[in-house]
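Encode chain A's predicted structure.
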Amino acid sequence: MPARDPGSQAHQLDGVVLNLQQGDRRSVADLFELLSSGAHFFVRRTVGDSPENAEIVRRVLLEAAQAALDGRIRDGAEMSNYVLTTIRELPSNGQDPVRVATDNFESPENMHSMSEIVSLLPARDREVVRRFYALGQSRSESARTCA
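Encoded structure for chain A:
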């Protein structure tokens, strides 16, 4: 994997995952700081606006932190993929998740946010995300295809 800019969010996320793997539960706060904004965006796109969105993000990020503590997530890219995939698999409160995710997708604000988040991922992970979101492949099918 190419070296990452030490100040980049991806590099910081690698450090958070490493700290979690070493049992440092204080790093959960760092995980929330790095990923909560993007996670809120994707939850809103998946389930719509709801007073429960903050709780959903909290549960997803805590589940991701536990996965890192358990050694199921090895680096920051896997952490990002795990969070995005978990959110993608949320029920959509009776709405078509593809429609919810694409409503107003082309607005400049949404495009900028999506581009920023996805640009942090390595090329292989971007392809997994593309296959999962754009092509609707399952998590396992996307990962298997890009392995």
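The chain is about 70% helix and 0% strand.
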